[in-house]
């Protein structure tokens, strides 16, 4: 095994990352570090598609189900905890496997990037939150684009927390998030990283997987779970999980459950497209498409052959 190895399994939601990561962990004696910005929270198991005990198949998973839903969590905190998990796995002589769909977490950890997110000014943050409530996310994004166009382009208007954070970083440090990230990239990467991506040649296959996952979530109790977590303050990150905000109109009597379910499927498909846009910028990812193989087993065998050559060859 090469020095400081790291296997990354990335891809859009519902693509099969968990199943592949577990299979690789069993094949190569590894343990899994989650790269999912919502699975970090306690509870919320259905909406975030948190791996079940059965799906984990006895493989240890790190950075899932540990943070209270009312707590905030920064990218810098994620990188710190992921490094600790990596060291623990390596100390056991096992292969660290980073698996998930949050591109910012993956890029920040593998690229040794650390945003200056630990510096906070509660008074400034409060002012920015009030401004967000007054002028709205679209206007704030437009203003952000005037001094940090790269970050503004990457952010969705729904991601109010990161929009506010981009302003806060700039106003407290004098540097934009993009500048801080570029400076961090000059630090040599810590790992020998092998990137594997899962996608589907036929986009309809992925969308069908997404639709079926939503149906399964609803059958497994998503409505009950969402009713509980929709009571969270709107400013909390956990309340923004896909699956909760789409069901809120149903709870408010503004639409039927069927309409809310269709909106949830649409939101999830849009999210998958944004994930793929992010990951496609990483030219180091070797993409594999399960729908081009005769079976999942054939697909997984091909992936494992590639990994074996890159990490153990």
Describe the structure.
The protein has 313 residues and is of the alpha/beta class. The protein folds into two domains: 5-112 and 188-312, Rossmann fold, CATH 3.40.50.300; 122-184, Histone, subunit A, CATH 1.10.20. The chain contains 14 helices and six strands. Strands 3-2-4-1-5-6 form a six-stranded parallel sheet, sandwiched between helices.
Features:
Rossmann fold, 313 residues, Histone, subunit A, 14 helices, alpha/beta, 10% strand, 2 domains
Question: Topology, pairings included?
Answer:
Blueprint: E1 5-10, H1 17-28, E2 30-34, H2 53-56, E3 61-62, H3 75-91, E4 95-100, H4 103-110, H5 122-135, H6 137-147, H7 149-154, H8 160-173, H9 177-184, E5 192-198, H10 203-219, H11 222-229, H12 248-251, H13 257-279, E6 285-288, H14 296-312
Parallel strand pairs: 1-4, 1-5, 2-3, 2-4, 5-6
Helix pairs in contact: 3-4, 5-6, 5-8, 6-8, 10-13
Question: Can I get a quick summary?
Answer:
The chain is α/β, with parallel strands linked by helices and 313 residues long. The chain has helices spanning 17-28, 53-56, 75-91, 103-110, 122-135, 137-147, 149-154, 160-173, 177-184, 203-219, 222-229, 248-251, 257-279, 296-312, and strands at residues 5-10, 30-34, 61-62, 95-100, 192-198, 285-288.
Order of helices and strands: EHEHEHEHHHHHHEHHHHEH
Helix content: 40-55%
Q: Provide the spatial order of strands within the biggest beta sheet.
A: 3-2-4-1-5-6
Terminal CA distance: 8 Å
Instruction: Average the pLDDT over all residues and give the rounded result.
Output: 92
């Amino acid at each position: 095994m090469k020095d400081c190895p790291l296997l990354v399994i990335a891809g859009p939601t519902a693509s099969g990352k968990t199943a592949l990561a577990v299979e690789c962990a069993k094949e190569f004696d590894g343990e899994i570090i989650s790269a999912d910005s919502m699975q970090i929270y306690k509870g919320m198991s259905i909406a975030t598609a948190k791996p079940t005990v059965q799906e984990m198949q006895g493989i240890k998973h790190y950075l899932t189900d540990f943070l209270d839903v009312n707590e905030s969590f920064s990218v810098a905190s994620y990188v710190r905890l992921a490094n600790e998990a990596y060291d623990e796995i390596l100390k056991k002589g096992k292969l660290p496997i980073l698996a998930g769909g949050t591109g910012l977490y993956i890029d920040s950890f593998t690229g040794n990037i650390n945003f200056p997110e630990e510096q906070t000014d509660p008074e400034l943050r409060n002012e920015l939150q009030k401004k967000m409530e007054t002028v709205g996310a679209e206007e704030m994004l437009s203003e952000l684009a005037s001094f940090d166009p790269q970050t503004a382009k990457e952010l969705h208007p729904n991601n109010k927390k990161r929009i506010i954070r981009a302003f806060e970083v700039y106003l407290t440090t004098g540097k934009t998030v993009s500048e801080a990230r570029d400076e961090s990239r000059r630090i040599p990467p810590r790992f020998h990283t092998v990137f594997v991506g899962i996608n589907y040649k036929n986009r309809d296959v992925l969308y069908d997987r997404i639709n079926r996952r939503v149906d399964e979530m609803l059958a497994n109790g998503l409505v009950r779970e969402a009713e509980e977590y929709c009571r969270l303050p709107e400013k909390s990150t956990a309340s923004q999980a896909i699956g909760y905000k789409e069901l809120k109109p149903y709870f408010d009597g503004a639409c039927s459950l069927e309409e809310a379910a269709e909106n949830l499927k649409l939101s999830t498909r849009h999210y998958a497209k944004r994930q793929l846009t992010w990951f496609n910028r990483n030219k180091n990812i070797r993409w594999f498409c399960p729908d081009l193989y005769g079976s999942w087993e054939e697909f997984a065998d091909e992936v494992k052959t590639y990994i074996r050559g890159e990490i153990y060859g």
